[in-house]
Design goal:
Number of domains: 1
Organism: Acinetobacter rongchengensis
Number of strands: 0
Subcellular location: Membrane
CATH topology: Alpha-lytic protease prodomain-like
Radius of gyration: 19 Å
Domain Cation efflux protein transmembrane: 22-198
Shape: elongated
Strand content: under 5%
Protein name: Cation transporter
Order of helices and strands: HHHHHH
Number of helices: 6
InterPro entries: Cation_efflux_TM, Cation_efflux_TMD_sf, CDF/SLC30A
Structural class: mainly alpha
């Protein structure tokens, strides 16, 4: 007699297109991490420094995503949950860094901010386009799409901040953008955490 018990669905076979997209995004984010880290330190820009940490976090997330391709839904959701928590933690770190920069009161160098901001935007648009087709997948796929989308939005804000700093000579536009990036990290992390928790619950119900 065939068993009528409910079992967990078989793990998804690794999607070769998604794997290739992840490798492209990983390379882009790791490269831009070094570019913005050095540029942010040179320009005294909180927004660039924050964005460089975001690039590094995304590179790590893409690497983790590559490692769990083909794993069960439970483990993909568990990894996505960890990534969501890291996105939210990143937002809190940026808020703390912004507060520190405000106390220091050193205006950033606008030209360097603008040039690196444009370069980062181009890089993130490429990554977002590559990952766009997977935006409606499971929490793991959704998390990598949200990372690239948030980065592209953040880079547009960095460019506007550079214009603001150039026009006013004030560090406030830079700090405001750093806060925007932190909010994107917090909200994006919440979305990923919410979906990952739902998928873990569904998995437990199937195996109950």
């Amino acid at each position: 007699m065939a068993c009528t018990c409910s079992h967990e669905p078989a793990p998804q076979k690794p999607n070769s297109k998604f794997r290739t997209a992840l490798w492209i995004a990983l390379f882009i984010n790791l490269t831009m991490f070094f570019v913005e880290l050095i540029g942010g330190a040179y320009a005294h820009s909180s927004a660039l420094w924050a964005d460089s940490l975001d690039f590094f976090g995304d590179a790590v997330n893409y690497g983790i995503s590559l490692a769990v391709l083909g794993a069960s839904l439970y483990w993909r959701a568990t990894v996505a949950l960890m990534k969501g928590l890291s996105m939210a933690l990143f937002g809190l770190v940026v808020i703390a860094k912004t507060a520190y920069a405000y106390v220091q009161g050193i205006p950033p160098e606008a030209m360097t901010m603008g040039v690196i901001g444009v370069l980062a935007l181009i890089a993130n648009v490429i990554a977002a386009v590559v990952l766009y087709a997977f935006r409606d997948g499971d929490s793991n796929m959704q998390s990598v799409w949200l990372c690239s989308r948030n980065d592209a939005i953040g880079n547009v804000a960095v460019i506007f901040a550079a214009v603001g700093v150039f026009g006013t000579g004030s560090l406030l536009p830079d700090l405001m953008v750093a806060l925007v990036i932190s909010i994107l990290g917090l909200t994006g992390g919440y979305q990923v955490i919410k979906k990952a928790v739902q998928e873990r619950k569904q998995n437990k119900m199937v195996n109950a």
